[in-house]
Fold this protein.
Amino acid sequence: MYMIPALEEYTEYNITVCINDSTCAFSIVTTNQAAPSAAPEEIKLKEKSSTSITIMWSPVPCDHHNGNITGYVVMLKKLDNGVSRSLTTRGSTMEYMIPGLEPSTEYEIQVAAFTIAAGPFTNDSLLASTLADTREGGSDVGGVVAGVIVSVLFLIGATLCIIAAIWLMRRKKSTLKGLFSMGHFKVTHKRRTSPHSRDIQDISLDQLSTGESLAGGELSSEKDELKRRR
């Protein structure tokens, strides 16, 4: 048994063992994985809001992987009080949104890759601040927009109701006018000097305008007779 020292991490070797230079045996061996020996490069800010910051970075150089990189660790430090926390992302993605941040707050951000263990963090930290919360001080933009929309809809509804009411009034007026122009009305006429009353007659609007009845102008004659008696 022999230990071969000073080999590289996660590297394949072809090992041959010979006895008296005549009988040989060989084997292909890969050393174990280790933590990456370099950090991700070029960490950048992609976008931010009042409660989140999205970052992106370049991969670790291939000769420093020392195994299969399975994810990244994001180290977040709040500058006003020095409180730190770490977040882990799995897979080969090189972009991450950090949620749950405070508005108008500055943070220091670093990233490290990991295989079976985490490697070093980026030397150049990213300093980024979240945006101000627009809801502070009562300036809720969403609420203002919603209020404007409700007001506009109310005005539109009121205008439609007024238009509908005017239309119904005009239609009712035209309907009554049509009834007067086509209908008949019953008129009861009773003579005071006569013991009997005249029968009810149907008189049209045209007959009323000319003073005639269905009996051939009897209403006019009766009116003249009453004048003579007085």
About this structure: Helices lie at 141-182, 205-210, 218-229. The radius of gyration is 50 Å. DSSP finds three helices and eleven strands in the chain.
